[in-house]
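Board notes (copied after class):
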Amino acid sequence: MPYIDLNGINTYYEIQGSGPPVVFIHGGYGGAGSTLAPPSNDWVDSLTDCFTIVTYDRRSCGRSTYPDINYTFDDIVKDLAGLITNLHLHKPFLIGSSAGGPIAISYALTNQSDISGLILPNTSARLWEHPDRIAPKKILLDRLEYLSSYGEALTYELIQRQQAGPNKFTLSTTGPGPQTNEARINAIARARVIHEKLTTISHNTHRSYVLGELRNLGTYLALDLRDSLKKLKTPTLILHGDADTQVPYTLGQELSVLIPHASFVTIHGAGHGIMSRTTAIDEIRSFLLQ
């Protein structure tokens, strides 16, 4: 399996297809689910006839390193920059999905002449700086403060107690929005795989997953890129499901207003995770080929 060192992070990546490079920055915040049952990138096969698709697991996600120290959002963006530089990707397109969106935007803001275009599915310039996130954001800030004050072992125990309690908070609290029967079946099957694999890993490994997800989340909580978006001149496509309950549809509309000359496509009836939608991939393909 291919790995590359990015700023001290042993980073898993894959390259498929041929043609102009397209770098995909995935969503989510890592943790056990992303490592024990990595999400499918079935959409990649739809583009490899014309493009070189580069996917990678961000730090504290999937098969990449879970650092046991805090880091910043800038560090995550530097990982992307290192990937592009070390793989010698000339003027790639960037696809930043969900939590990958702000990473793609931040990189584009300082490297506009070095990319060919920006694609932003179901994302926002302020994933945690909006009213729907006030309550969960406070819980996460409290956990981060606890981690700083009391260390990893006690913070892990605190999170486990909270997750088992009646007022538990998980990132799926808001739900993914409407799903097809096939999507529901796949989600249930994936949950079963994760549950089974959790019984086979050590306490320390699980703790690294839980705290890695917390550290990853912590880099986003105060992030708000709205004031910088007017500087973006690169061709940009924004796609958003109008039934998205994780990143509200209005935040996608906001992006389209704030990024000059951006194209906006509504994926009707879609919830979060629209990279699995044929309609979204067809729009992306058209944008890449224009």
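Comment from the instructor: Residues 181-198 form the longest helix (18 residues). The first strand starts at residue 3 and ends at 6.
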